[in-house]
Design a protein that fits this description.
Number of strands: 0
Shape: globular
Structural class: mainly alpha
Helix content: 55-70%
Number of helices: 13
Strand content: under 5%
CATH class: Mainly Alpha
Radius of gyration: 20 Å
Oligomer: single chain
CATH architecture: Orthogonal Bundle
Number of domains: 1
CATH superfamily: Ribonucleotide Reductase, subunit A
């Protein structure tokens, strides 16, 4: 049994705001949309829908090592088992991320300066709780309880976010980076998953995630423009580190171990993943996912005023072209 809880030391100032007038109409509109679009995991998902694990969960092309000589040698039974374990590992990381987001947003309710932002953040707490609920229920009821431990990268990111006392750092790490990744991944799952129930769940989650990205685009520009040089440099460096943690290093080693791969075979798959990501033969829908992910990250950083020369250089080190315009994307970085 893996660790199911740990403590994070946190300290932040609570702003008890008693100005109830509307200062940011766009933020209030986001709040109204959040109230309008609420959905209920218990009632709005048809949990009687069977999940045929024999067919797999994710599209085969999403599995690390797909198409490699080692993968092609596997028998159908092992490929099916790997699909299930890989899918559950990836969904587990999304689940842990949603739980972390719920905790971070509950802190942001205290920390953000205006009631326009506070009202919206209360809706995001509910949204993130709903996402954790639906993913944990899917894994528990449809995947025989296959919930994997949190990856080191996800734990490191959220431990830092939850212990951070500056709301703009939490918002940048959560809404600007992590939510952008989540939107791209859930969109890909909604379009390519072999399981119809997971497609439905992913589409429901997407309704919420796009609003969450909107919070950073609306709420961060004025704050970033007012930052001191030292605070701005801290935000530049943290955003680059958040991108690195989300985009790199999340290799599903435990899933391969569960299926019976040895250390040499796992290392071979990991090398193939890196090399294949550099070629033009990389799975088409993963190319599209990366292009959209990179384009959205760059676009949002520009919108909030974070695209400095230092940020551009940080992105280049991660293999992301800061001038990307949506028509082309670099394939130099290993897949998420």
């Amino acid at each position: 049994m893996f660790e199911t809880e740990h403590q994070v030391q946190s300290e932040f100032e609570t702003i008890y705001q008693r100005d109830y007038s509307v200062h940011a109409p766009d933020m209030r509109r986001l709040y109204e949309n959040a109230k309008r679009d609420q959905w209920n995991v218990s009632k709005d998902i048809d949990w009687s829908t069977p999940v045929d694990l024999e067919k797999g969960i994710f599209a085969e092309g999403m599995i690390d090592g797909y198409g490699s000589p080692l993968y092609e040698k596997l028998d159908d039974k092992t490929k099916r088992e790997l699909n299930i374990e890989f899918s559950c590992w990836r969904l587990s990381q999304l689940l842990h991320g949603e739980e972390g987001a719920m905790l971070a947003c509950s802190q942001l309710v205290d920390m953000v300066p205006t009631n326009d932002a506070k009202f919206f953040q209360t809706t995001q707490v509910v949204d993130e709780a709903r996402h954790a609920e639906v993913l944990s229920r899917y894994l528990a009821e449809k995947c025989d309880g296959r919930i994997y431990p949190m990856s080191k990268n996800i734990k490191h990111l959220f431990d830092y976010l939850l212990g951070q006392g500056k709301w703009f750092i939490k918002t940048a790490g959560l809404q600007l980076v992590a939510e952008t990744f989540a939107v791209g991944l859930f969109r890909m799952l909604a379009e390519t998953s072999q399981d119809p129930l997971l497609k439905t769940i992913s589409k429901k989650i997407l309704l919420d995630e796009s609003r969450h990205m909107g919070f950073s685009v609306i709420g961060l520009p004025d704050m970033i423009a007012s930052l001191s040089p030292s605070d701005f440099a801290e935000l530049e460096d943290f955003t680059a580190e958040a991108c690195r943690l989300v985009l790199r290093g999340q290799f599903p080693r435990p899933a391969f171990e569960k299926v019976g791969f040895n250390q040499t075979e796992i290392d071979e798959i990991q090398r193939y993943r890196v090399e294949n990501a550099k070629s033009n033969d990389y799975i088409y829908f993963r190319q599209i996912f990366r292009r959209e992910m990179y384009t959205q990250v760059v676009s949002n950083m520009k919108k909030v005023g974070l695209m400095s020369e230092r940020t551009k250089e940080n992105l280049r080190k991660l293999g992301i072209d800061p001038n990307i315009d949506g028509r082309a994307a670099t394939l130099e970085q290993q897949p998420a």
